[in-house]
Amino acid sequence: MTTDDRRRAIGSVVAVAADRFVIEMHGGTDSFTVVGFDDVHYVARLGSFVMIPAQAEYVVAEIVGLRERDAGAGGEMDKAGSAKFLDVVPVGMLPVEGGRFRFGVSIFPSLYADALYALDKELDRIFDTSPASERSSGPDGGNCVPAEATRLRILEIGQSVVFEDYRVKVRIDEFFGGHAAVLGNTGSGKSCTVASILQELFDKPDEHHARGATFVALDVNGEYHQAFGRLAAAGVIGVDRLVLDGTAAADRFRIPHWFLDLSEWELLLQASERTQVPILRMALGLATLFGGAADQQLNGIRNHILAKCITQILSDESPPGAKETRILGILQRFRTAEINSGTIGAMVHTHFGKMDHIEDAFEYLVGADGDGGFVIEKFKLPDYSNSPFEFSTLGDAIDLALLYEEAHGNRQIRDHCSQMVTRFKALLEREDYAFMRHPTAGATGDTGPFLARLLGLGVQNGCHVKNSQVVIIDMNAVEDEVVELVSAVVARMVFRLLRRAEPRSRFPVHLLLEEAHRYISSTPSRYALDAGRVFERIAKEGRKYGLFLLVASQRPSELSKTVLSQCSNFVVHRIQNPDDLSQIRQMSPSISDGVLRRLPTLPKQHALVFGNSVNLPTTFKVRSADPLPASDDAKIVDLWFHEAGRKAGITFSAAPADLIDEEEDDPPF
What we know:
By secondary structure, this protein is of the alpha+beta class. The strands form six sheets. An eleven-stranded mixed beta sheet has the order 13-12-26-25-24-14-23-22-15-21-16, with helices on both faces. Helix 4 (about 190-200) runs parallel beside helix 5. The relative contact order is 0.13.
C-alpha cells in the first residue's frame, strides 16, 4: 500500500461475506468525518464508494448502511468513543495503477484490510469519464479542419449529491447511441433536464461543435423554443420551430394528406379491420387513380370501374329517376373521355318515368356477345401510391368503392361502413384538420423537401447540409388525437427514410418525445388504436439505422412496455405513484432497494441516472438550464394577492371553441 493510501484509510474490514462487507472505522472518528491528506471527507453518505486494496486492485464497494455501538459500560453514549460501522456491498474491481473498472468481484479482501475513501481521479476511472474531450477528425477519419479542433467524449449533466464537489458525467456515445428515458412526476424537472443536457451538448466552446446532431422535438406543451433560443442566437447551432395549430396557414406546419400511409389512414378514420379497412384501401387506390395521369392503362381501369358501378345502378330496383340522378352525380365527380354525361347521358335519360334506352347503355358499357364495352376480365383494383389527390375526392372514392362492392353482391356494405363515412365527413369540415387538407396544385408525391425541412437540412452547392440541429414541432395548440396522428406520421416517415439510406446509420436522428405517455401508451387510446406501433418498432429496430428515442414522461406505468424495455439509459426524477415505482423497479433490477426508496423524496432538480452511459447508478443535482423551458410553476401568492383593477394575465382568441367542453350544452362563460 502506498503512503497516500495509508493516509486516506478510514477503517478496517471486520466481516466478509459473498455479498456484503462490514467496515469498522478507526477509533476517534467523529460523526463519520475523516481528515485526509487532501481534504476533509464525510464518508457515510449512502451510495458513496470505498476502496479496499486486494493485491494489485481495489475492491470498489458501495455504502448501504451505517451504525454505531457504544464501547463504554453504560450511561449516555460516548459519540467519540463509540465504534462506528459501515455496511458495504461489493460492486466491482479497479486496478491500482491505471486500467478500467469492471463489474463483479473476483478477489475478496482479507480481514482487517484497510478501507479507503475514493479520490476524484478514481471516480473518473470508475465512471469511465476521462478524458472529457479528444482530438477530432475529418470525414471518414481524414484530416481535421481546423487541425487543433476537439470533440466531446463525455457530457457533464450535474453535480453529485453523494461525492463532494464531483461532477456527474455520461459518455456521449453510449447515452445518445441508444434510446433514453427521462421520467418523473410533474414539476420534478424533466423538461429542464432535457433542456440542460442539450444546452450543455451544444454549448461546447471550441471547434468542433455538434453540427451533425439532429434532434426533432415533438413538443406537445410548447416549452422548448424558449430554452433553445440562445443557442440559435449564437449562430453556431440552428434551431427551427415548426408550429402546428391545425390551420392551413402558410407559416404553419402542414402534412399533405397523401403522405399518410395506409395504416395511418386507418387510424385517422378509425376503420374497423373486418369490413371498413378493405373499403378504405379500395377508396384510397381509386382516389390515387382518378387523381393521377390519364395514360391509356389508367384510363382503361377508370372506365372499368365506372362501367361496373353504373351497370350496378341500372340493375337495382330503384325508380328510373333515382337511377338517372345517381348516375349523373357519379359522372360529375368521376368521368373519362369515354364515359361521361355527354356519352351516356341520353341513354340514361328518364322520360315520363321510363328509361327508354337502358339496353343501349348496357351494350355501350358492357358490350354485346363478348365484344366491346369497358369491363376488364380478371380485373385487379389499383393500390394506394401516395400520389397527390384532393382530400374531398376521398369521400367520393369511398362512395365509388361502396358502389363497386355492391355491384359484386355485397348489399349490406354501406351500412357496415356508415361510421367511417361519418368520420370522414367530420374531418372534411373540422378546422383543426385543415393542416392536412393540402391542395394538389403544383404538388408531387416527393417527400424529400418535407423531410429535409423536418431534419434541419438545406441545399448548398447541390448537396444537403445542416442548417438546424434542433427542430421543434410545437403542438401545444392541438388536441391529443392530432398529436397522436402527427407524431406517428413524422416518426414513420423518418424511420422509412433512414432504413432506405445508404450507407446505413450515417445520419443519426433523435426523436424527443415530450409527454410520451399521451401517444405511445401501454393501452390503446380512443383516437389512434395503433399509433404506438411505429414507436415500438423504432424502439426495437431504430438503433441499427441511426434513429433513437429520447422519451420524457411523468407516467412510466402508462408508457408502452416495449418502448421502455428498449431504453438503455434512464434519468429518473421524483416518482411517488406506486405503479410508476413498480415499473422503475422492473426496469432496473441491478439498483439497490435503498436507492429506489429515495425516489419518492428526491428534491426538485435532482435525479438518479443509470444505464450503459454510466458504469454505476448515481444521484445528482441536474445542471441548471439557461434559459429555462417555458414550464415554470405558477407563482400563486404573487398572482392572487394584488391591487384592485390589475390587468388579467390572459387573453382569449376570437373563437375560443377549444375552451368549451363538447359534451356541455352551455359554454362555461
